[in-house]
Each structure stands twice: as C-alpha cells, then as structure tokens.
Write a structure and sequence with these properties.
With 515 residues, this protein is α/β, with parallel strands linked by helices. The chain is built from 20 helices and nine strands. Strands 1, 2, 3, 4, 5, 6, 7, 8 and 9 form a nine-stranded mixed sheet that branches.
Length: 515
C-alpha cells in the first residue's frame, strides 16, 4: 500500500526509529514485509491504557496540591525531614505523562503513515514500570490519604464541564487514526467491534452533560456573598505560623478570624503552638537538645521565650512564597518568638478581628486545668467575648457557664432532635456537600470549611454558599472578586450543543476523507 498523502518517507523512517528503537527505513520495512500483528495491537492498547492511567493520576496530583502541606508535615513528624514533596510529585508525574504521551503520539502517527507498530522491548519494560508506579501511587493514596478521593469528587464540580469538552475533543481527534486503521485492516469482525466501541463511547460523551452538576452553573444574580477568610495559623505563606507577625499579615489580607492552636506551659501560661513537639517550628534542638523530643507542655514559659520561632520559616521554606519575601519581612521573621495567648488576644483586639482556637492536647491528664487557665486569660484580656470562637469539645459546658458570650463552634454536623441548635460548625471541606451547605445557610447556621487554598476549590464553595473558609493562602483568595467561572444554565446548554455537533461533523469528515 502506498504511503498516505502528506506522509513522507523520511518522516516515517524517523517515527519507526523512535518507536521501535531500530533504524529501519520505510523502504526496508516494505522489503522485509513487516506488519502490525495482534501482539503489536495489544501493546498499543496497553500503551493507550497506561496513558489514560497516568493522565488520571496527573489530575489527582493537581487536586491534592490543595492539601499537600499536611503531607509535608506528616513526613516531618515521621522522619524529621522537611521537603516540599509536591515538587517531587509534580516532576515525577510530568515525566511519566510526557513519556507515555510521546509514545502514544508516535504510534498514532505511524498508524496514519501506514507503518507497523513494532514497540521495542525497552519501551515495553518502561511502560510496565510506569503502570506499576502509578498503581502504587493510587494504592498509597487510598491507604494513607483516603479523604482525597472525596476531594476529587468535589473537584469534578469545578472541572466537569471543561473535562467533558477536553475528552470530546480528544476522542474526536482519535477518529483520524481509527478511520485509517479501519480502512487498512481486512478483519471485518475487528472493524465492527472498534466502530461499536467508539460509537458507544462517543454517544456516552455526548450525553454526559446531563449528569454533570456544579454549583457554579447559575445566574449571576443567584451568586451568594463571597465567603469570609479565616487565617489558618495566621498567614503561614507570608510569615512563620502561629506568631504575631503571622497574625498581622493575616489582618493585611482582610481575614475576619485568626485561627490558631493553644497549649499551656508547665507553669500555666497558655501559648500558641500547633505541634505537640517544638522541633518543626522552633530551634529547640539547638537551645535544649536533651529536651527537644518532649511535649510542648513540658516547658515552662521562661524556657519557651528563649526559642526562635521564625528562622525555621526562612530555612525550610514551607511554601514557595517564602522566596519572594522582602528583606524587611525576612528580618522580622527572624525576630519572632512563641506568643502567649494573652499577646494574641491583645493583637486581635487591637486589629478588631476574631480569634478561633483549639486547645491541645485534648488527651492530657491536666486538660481541665488547661481549660481553666485559658478561660482566665480570655476573661482578663478585655477582648469582647463575641470575638472569641471556642473549638474544643472538652468541658464545653463549663466554658458556656463561665464565659457565656464566647461563640461555641462545633466540629461536627448537627444531630436530629438537637436540644440546643448549632450556630457555628467547623468541618473539613470534604465533609459537606453542596446541598448540605445550602440547607445550613437557609437555617442560619454559619459553616466554616478547612483548609481551602486553591482558587478552584474556593470558587466551588463560594457558589455553594459557604459562610467562611480557613486558608493558608489568604493573600491569593483576598484578590478573588469572582469565582473562576460562572455559567448560566442556558449558556452551558448552548456550549454543550455546539461542542457535540462540531465533534460529530469532524468525525464524519475524518471517515469520509480517509475512505
């Protein structure tokens, strides 16, 4: 069979060399009578599946970036090693997807040029390794980070309409090599099978928008108010977490609430600290090396004040934004110390923002004394009690009695026949559906979801009607004046019809042109 129009012999030779790892010219290939066997077709199908597999993993990798700081903290607790593992994830994923995509493009070009698909054994081995690596990544995700599956489902509300357009476009382009293969093969059964499968997939894709739902498919006038921002440990992308600098940076980002974590020192002083150990966010290993592994509550306030709570931020760079800090901010970060709750309350009062906190560790034997010490500081601080949001469940009734003006925030959904109605809930963003958020909003229950860093996720929750979100990226979400996208249902229907009709005509043209 002659080469198809537009497929020059040198091009076919290069494609064969790259795909088969052998320098076989198109002319020699014809003399040797090489042709695509059933085994070669099976390897092409495997290549196509591996490409789709890595493509799905790329999607997951992008989605889990919202929560990857939690993974970095987890690794540090286990190995005492700090690294931005998101870079490793993205680089590895990019290598895998690029390799499988290049091989697939080569195979499709060879098919269009009428050349045999003789995949080299080295490529076969690397494809198997790629499939195993991605399978291991998915397995690890399911075992250690199962909530990210729910994150992926939420992400489809933001990406569903665009994924549909992309998949339809990709399947439409696939019509060209498919038509070329069908017209070249003499196996009638295979022709019929491929056509039936392709038609079934395309029909399913054309009808897919009927099952796509997103809270952002609405009229502009139906859009709820922008959610308020809660600074997660302040503004941790701009300053060391749980420091006064972080609180002030959060104020600059227009946050309404400073979210933090409180522990109580050995001599009864409540202070801001998230981790049970001091090793991640202070220089305790240099100052008290023999006590570095002790719980934070084992140190008295005098000892805690000797620790540097800011230099680690510049050394470890927990977020890429650290590199862009000004010289003044860098100097200020090195001067940070562990703040007491009293200092934080005074700063919140002066800045007129609320403060929300957990009291850790809740399983401590002296937890009631921690509650008493914390309440005493709050009541003596002079901050308006409505600016204090209380998260801990332990001894909540005592807190209600001693400080009735403090706002009670619950880390659970409401129960049936609840004696006292909830007014504020604080939950992971994976735990509430769009329908639940809207129902809580109708019932005047304030819903705060955490931790929301990516604009796509913030957009979905904005359209859903959430009251506020806890974020590490207050400087990013502050600048958002509108969800990333908002489509009236009529516009979405028009786009759906245009995309499907264009795709159908392009497929028809491909089969008629290559006949």
């Amino acid at each position: 069979m002659a080469d198809p129009p537009g497929c020059c012999r040198p091009c076919a030779t290069c494609l064969l060399c790259l795909y088969s790892c052998q320098w076989i010219t198109a002319k020699k290939e014809k003399r040797k009578g090489l042709r695509t066997t059933k085994c070669d077709c099976s390897w092409f199908l495997f290549l196509f599946c591996v490409f789709l597999f890595t493509l799905v993993w790329l999607y997951f990798a992008i989605i889990i970036l919202n929560d990857f700081h939690n993974f970095n903290e987890f690794i540090f607790k286990q190995r005492k090693l700090w690294l931005d593992w998101s870079l490793v994830l993205l680089i590895a994923t990019a290598v895998l997807i690029t390799y499988s995509a290049v091989l697939l493009v080569l195979a499709l070009c060879l098919q269009l040029c009428g050349q045999p698909l003789k995949l080299h054994w080295l490529h076969k081995t690397l494809l198997i390794l790629t499939a195993l690596v991605v399978a291991a990544a998915f397995t690890g995700l399911g075992i250690k980070w199962a909530e990210e599956w729910r994150s992926a489902r939420i992400s489809l509300q933001a990406t569903g309409p665009f994924l549909h357009i992309g998949i339809v476009g990709g399947m439409t382009l696939l019509a060209w090599p498919l038509a070329s293969f069908i017209y070249r093969t003499h196996n009638t059964g295979l022709k019929v099978f491929l056509l039936l499968v392709y038609c079934a997939v395309m029909i399913a894709l054309y009808l897919a928008p009927m099952g796509i739902t997103s809270p952002c498919i609405m009229e502009e006038k139906q859009l709820p108010p922008k959610p308020a921002l809660v600074g997660h440990r302040g503004a941790p992308m701009l300053a060391p977490e749980n420091t006064l600098m972080s609180l002030h940076k959060a104020v600059d980002c227009d946050v309404q609430v400073f979210e933090t974590d409180v522990m109580v020192s050995a001599d009864g002083v409540p202070f801001l600290m998230h981790d049970e150990e001091l090793t991640r966010t202070t220089n305790v290993q240099a100052v008290f090396p023999e006590r570095a592994a002790l719980n934070s509550t084992a140190f008295n306030w005098t000892d805690l004040q000797q620790l540097d709570a800011g230099s680690w931020f510049l050394e470890r760079r927990p977020f890429p934004t650290v590199q862009s800090l000004s010289a003044g901010d860098r100097y200020q970060a090195t001067k940070q110390r562990i703040p007491s709750l009293e200092q934080a309350l005074e700063a919140a009062k002066q800045s007129n923002i609320s403060i929300m906190f957990d009291l850790r560790p809740e399983n401590h034997s002296d937890y009631q004394s921690f509650v008493n010490a914390t309440l005493e500081v709050i009541l003596q601080s002079g901050i308006p009690l409505q600016q204090v949001l209380w998260l801990p469940d332990g001894f909540r009734e005592q807190v209600k009695h001693q400080a009735p003006g403090v706002q009670q925030v619950y880390g659970r959904k409401r129960l049936q026949n609840e004696k006292e109605p909830l007014l504020h809930v604080n939950l992971p963003y994976q735990d509430m559906s769009t329908e639940e958020i809207r129902q809580y909003r109708q019932d005047n229950i304030s819903v705060n979801l955490y931790v929301v860093n990516q604009p796509w996720l913030f957009s979905v929750l904005w359209c859903s009607g959430v009251s506020s979100v806890t974020t590490n990226a207050c400087q990013v979400l502050k600048e958002m004046k509108h969800p990333i996208w908002l489509l009236p249902s009529s516009t979405y229907l028009m786009i759906w019809i245009v995309v499907d009709c264009t795709s159908f005509l392009a497929i028809l043209w491909a089969f008629l042109l290559l006949k």
